[in-house]
């Protein structure tokens, strides 16, 4: 005789490869959790959240670049001025001094140019948010 399958064992969901049992509800929760994790970990977090950022969080990179550039520029000024004072290793000072001067000046100018670019981007974001709220106000009526 062929035995019929036990109805109690038919109701138990199959185990996953790691040995844990998951119901269909937990699978739905897992996919929704993954979607929210993707939103949180995206680069443009300000699109998903409406929190305003502090000035340091916005301008810290250009400030750091300008500070490093100013330091390297001053180091170049010191090395270049050593060519006038010191008589030994004059060739070394003549080569390295202008290199540090130019590198420091380049970083300083990059940081100075970066700040207006960030301000312009912020104004564009504010305008786009304002337009989106106006669109949603008129089209959702």
Task: Please tell me about this protein's structure.
With 141 residues, the chain is an all-alpha fold. It is built from five helices and no strands. α4 packs antiparallel against α5. Mean pLDDT is 74; it is low at 26-50.
Task: Lay out the secondary structure.
Blueprint: H1 7-11, H2 24-40, H3 45-48, H4 55-85, H5 90-139
Keywords summarizing the entry:
mainly alpha
What share of residues is helical?
over 70%
Q: Determine the structural class based on helices, strands and strand pairing.
A: mainly alpha
The overall pLDDT average reads 74
- Radius of gyration (Å): 31 Å
Tell me the span between the first and last alpha carbons. Answer: 70 Å
How many strand segments? 0
Give the overall form: rod-shaped
- Total helical elements: 5
Low-confidence stretches: 26-50
Largest sheet: none
> SSE string, helix = H, strand = E?
HHHHH
How much of the sequence lies in strands comes to under 5%
Short description, anyone?
By secondary structure, the chain is an all-alpha fold. Helix content is 76%, strand content 0%.
């Amino acid at each position: 005789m062929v035995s019929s399958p036990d109805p109690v064992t038919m109701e138990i969901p199959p185990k996953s490869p790691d040995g844990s049992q998951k119901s269909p509800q937990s699978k739905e929760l897992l996919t929704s959790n993954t979607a929210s994790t993707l939103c949180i970990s995206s680069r443009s977090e300000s699109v998903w959240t409406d929190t305003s950022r502090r000035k340091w969080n916005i301008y810290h990179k250009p400030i750091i670049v300008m500070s490093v550039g100013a330091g390297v520029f001053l180091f170049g000024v010191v090395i270049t001025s050593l060519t006038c004072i010191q008589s030994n290793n004059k060739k070394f000072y003549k080569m390295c001094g202008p290199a540090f001067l130019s590198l420091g000046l380049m970083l300083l100018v990059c940081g100075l140019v970066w700040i207006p670019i960030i301000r312009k981007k912020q104004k564009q974001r504010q305008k786009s948010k304002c337009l989106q709220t106006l669109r949603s106000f008129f089209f959702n009526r």
